[in-house]
């Protein structure tokens, strides 16, 4: 954990909701061609982030509902993302103390494995329902998402920083 | 006396129990959707909530497009204009002939007392986005139930068949492209009238003629058009061109790969055909023989 000379403010619920909506917007953008594979599943990443950082505030209910929204928006099978995000939320909540103990690089590796698991669940559901294997490029999105983890951590912590104290410094 | 922990840290059921609950709910939804298709109503409701988000997410691309239009050079516009003028001139000649032929055809059909081909009306739609679900080949267009789009209607562009409307929402609809693995179109070869069924392979820009015997007369370069005998697609719309024919005596069927003619992945505007084919009633099936007593599947 990085050393800081200040302690973070509590996170506001409104900010969490805003991040969810922003992630949904990015996911719903009209990606096409190769971008479909490269683009990160930001909703999964943000769900995982809040489950690791704030497991008391964000949990199964939000993950499951966001999964349903993604299912409708993608026109895919009802419940595939809901299932994957629920498992992701579970992993985040169970591992939240451990993941945050690591350095940022090791956190990225943790996140990568969890996101790959998320992809694998969706893949398993679809192949069970009769779809063809889309090739290993299907997993590229998780790598992109995991690489975004440090940036996401930095940005999402910004509103929690206290205003600079004029008496110090 | 029983000892309970103090109620300050009550956290509800443990995560394992919650996970089990969520997973069970999801699996129930999956089965209800994939197996029985019960959930179209719920999908409609959620889609109404998601719709503004979808439009908002699509806004940056629309903005980019209009920015691009703003910076089009005069030269490019003039070239395009000249090209379109030539094209419309050459098409005008064909159209003249077509009008005469259509009149003649109607007259002949009258004489022969054949069924008239029903005139079709179209709904113009723009493609909002394409294929986010990597397992299927689909596009979402900006016209839905409110604009008279119905599931099952064929979707074309200026060249030929693009796909078929498979799911409708109030203001959007989903079109499954002909390249989708589950999609099939009955076609006919323009050269010799041979009929076949063409299906997607799940890859962009690739279709396959299915279950064609090795000796069937299909050649590279043959144009395939819809045959219209399914009652879904109107007859005579271009579908694909045969790209490779592979006849290997080791297999039962020839492997014929085709290239779709319409811009299945590249178009922005499409037409939804409101085409109702009033086929005569299907003849009554012969009464089936009495069901045989169930046999055990293995052994016997």
Please give a handful of descriptors for the protein shown:
heterodimer, A: 169 residues, mainly alpha, Arp2/3 complex 21 kDa subunit ARPC3, 8 helices, 64% helix, elongated, B: 300 residues, alpha+beta, Thrombin, subunit H, 3 domains, 6-stranded antiparallel beta barrel, globular
Structural description of this entry:
The complex is a heterodimer of chains A (169) and B (300). Chain A has 169 residues and is mainly alpha-helical. Chain A has one domain (13-160): Arp2/3 complex 21 kDa subunit ARPC3 (Orthogonal Bundle), CATH 1.10.1760. Helices cover 64% and strands 0% of the residues of chain A. In chain A, helix 6 runs antiparallel to helix 7. The longest helix of chain A has 25 residues, at 104-128. Chain A is elongated and about 65 Å long. The model of chain A has no long low-confidence stretch (mean pLDDT 88). By secondary structure, chain B is an alpha+beta fold. Chain B folds into three domains: 16-57, no CATH class; 72-116; 120-277, Thrombin, subunit H. Chain B has three helices and twelve strands, in the order H-H-H-E-E-E-E-E-E-E-E-E-E-E-E. Chain B has helices spanning 15-36, 40-70, 74-112, and strands at residues 121-130, 138-141, 154-156, 161-168, 173-177, 184-189, 195-200, 207-213, 223-226, 238-246, 253-260, 269-274. In chain B, the strands form two sheets. A six-stranded antiparallel barrel of chain B has the order 1-2-5-4-3-12. In chain B, a hairpin with a 5-residue loop joins strand 6 and strand 7. The model of chain B has no long low-confidence stretch (mean pLDDT 83). Classes of the chains: A mainly alpha (169), B alpha+beta (300). Chain A binds chain B through residues 21, 24-32, 36-37, 56, 59-60, 63-64, 67-69, 72-80, 82-83, 86-87, 89-90, 93-94, 125-126, 129, 131-132, 134, 138, and chain B through 11, 15-16, 18-19, 21-23, 25-30, 32-34, 39, 42-43, 46-47, 49-50, 53-54, 56-58, 60-61, 128-136, 138, 140, 167, 174, 181, 202.
